[in-house]
Amino acid sequence: MKKFYAMLIGSFLLAxxxxxxxxxxxxxxxxxxxxxxxxxxxxxxxxxxILLYLASGxxxxxxxxxxxxxSKNREFYLLILFTVAPSASTWSFFVTVMWWG
Length: 101
Fold this sequence. Notes:
Blueprint: H1 2-20, H2 22-32, H3 38-66, H4 74-100
Helix pairs in contact: 1-3, 1-4, 2-3, 3-4
């Protein structure tokens, strides 16, 4: 069960990092790895971050269906997911759209 929680928290944190700091990561990848335009890295990071948020939501749903002990923390988990994920995804999508022009 610890592995499941680690995967849930890891995917959520990684999605948040990709969505919030995607612009800086795109510049870093462009300078130190394959020399592509940072806009392609940013687009990939945005898509990957949103997919990781969807995976986190799916993992959270599976956690709720498998365990009854989580019921006291259910509202907190849902509040965090439905507060952070839409705002970070919207921000990342906005930045990506502005880069594309």
